[in-house]
Every structure is written in structure tokens, then in C-alpha cells.
Amino acid sequence: MSSEICESERVQTRGFFYGYLSGIGVTCGAHRLWSHRSYKAKRPLRIALMIMHTMAGQNDLYTWCRDHRIHHKFSETDADPHNSNRGFFFTHVGWLLTKKHPDVILKGKTVDCSDLLRDPVVRFQRKYYTYMYLFWCIFLPIWFCHTILGHTWGDSFIGMYGRYIVSLHVTWFVNSAAHMFGDRPFNGKIAARENQMVSFAAWGSEGFHNYHHVFPWDYAISEHGWKFNPMKYKIDLCAKYGLAYDLKRPSPDLIEKVKENSLKQANNIHPYEKPHIFC
């Protein structure tokens, strides 16, 4: 019995590691690099991030980044693919289960994504995404755990699909919980919020969503001084070895000025008109 428990724990640990790699592809790649151009990357790094993003199984880079750019431009409107005004379930996963609102398609065409298609790495993944998804996200982790590491097919299947389900929900919580629960120190007029639970679950900083919607071009996606930010450290490490460059960050003074202006605006609102803030 104890050996079975140890076997299961080893599979879970390897599933966590695979999920962590896929998280790098989503946060450092799809989000910070391709969606927001918060830094630039040499081709070897872009290829590695593309593969890790494919491991996450969250659609191809072009589609992921296009939807995210539309979300930022039309946040909390009918043109937002995962409009939080339509409720928690919709913004968490329901938007993937229904047809897109006509405004998402119509206004989405006004969002320029031509830079994505100019990148041969993005084009390659988009062209062969179905095959790459089946290999990197589905087949490889199960085959590796069974054939190379010697786990049973059942344990390999459960462990690797467990990490897939968890990683999907972590990303979805950024869209849902980080738009509904938390404070709004940078802009009280938008739905995006600071949610530290989401930040910890999403590898360090993705839950600083109010900040992110005000400074989407910050490669760290968090305030100066926030210590737990492993994805930022990975980009910094790549920059140290010349794989990443032109890292963008707002100055601490600019961040403080934005917070002060937001506080002044909040204090000028009539008490009965102030938006409720979830803590």
C-alpha cells in the first residue's frame, strides 16, 4: 500500500514539473512576450516558449494572444471574450463552451495582430498546432512516465491529465477570480483586481490584475518590491545570457503617482457610489 502511495506521489511530482514548464510557456511566452510585447526574445527562446506553451494545451499562440488583446481593449463589454459582467462561470470557462458574442468578432477585427503572424515561430505552431498539441500535451507526458520512468499506464494517465486540468483552471482563475475578488489600488473604475491567491497559484504575479490592466507592458506584471515572482526571474536570467532583451518596466515613481491619483479619484466619489471592494 505504501509503495502505491509513493508511486502516486512520484507521478504527481512529475506532473507538477510538466505543469510548471507549461506555465512558463503561458506566462512568459503567450502572455508577456507575444500578447503584450513587454520584452523581446531571440529565436531559440521563442521556440522553447512556443513548445512549452503547446504543452499547456490552451490553443495556439495566435488565438490565445488575439483573444487576450481583445480582452484588454474591450474589457467588461460584450466585445470581451470572457466578460466578467456575465458571471463567474461564464468568465471562468463558459466562454469556451458557447459561441462568441457578435461584438467579439466584429470589434475583434479592429485589434491589430499582424505582428504575431510575422513571427515564423507563431506561424509554424499555428499551422501544425493539432499535431503538436496531441504530441506535446497529450502523448509525450503519458508515454514518458510509462516507458521511461516505469509508471503504470493508469498512474501516468491520471498524473498527467491531473496537471492539465489544474493548469487550465489556474489560467481561468486569472480571468474570473482576478476580475471579481480583490482590491483595486491602481484604477477603481475597472473590474480587474489584485488577488494574491491567484498570484501564488499562477506562478507569482499573474493575479496582480488591476496593476496589469494599468501597466500591461510591464514584463514583471507586478509592483516593484514584490518578491515572489519566479517568472520574472526566468526572463531576467534569459536577459543575462542574451536570449531576452528590451525588458520594459514602469518606474517606481510612475507607479506611485498612478496609485495616488487612483486614491484621489476614489475619495472624490460619493460614499454611496463607491464600488464595493472584495477583500
From TrEMBL:
UniProt key word Lipid biosynthesis: yes
GO annotations of cellular component type: endoplasmic reticulum membrane
UniProt domain Fatty acid desaturase: residue ranges: 16-216
UniProt GO BP: unsaturated fatty acid biosynthetic process
Superkingdom field: Eukaryota
Keyword Chaperone in annotation: no
One function term, GO molecular function aspect: iron ion binding
Keywords in alphabetical order: Fatty acid biosynthesis, Fatty acid metabolism, Iron, Lipid biosynthesis, Lipid metabolism, Membrane, Oxidoreductase, Transmembrane, Transmembrane helix
UniProt protein name: Stearoyl-CoA desaturase-like protein
Organism name: Leptotrombidium deliense
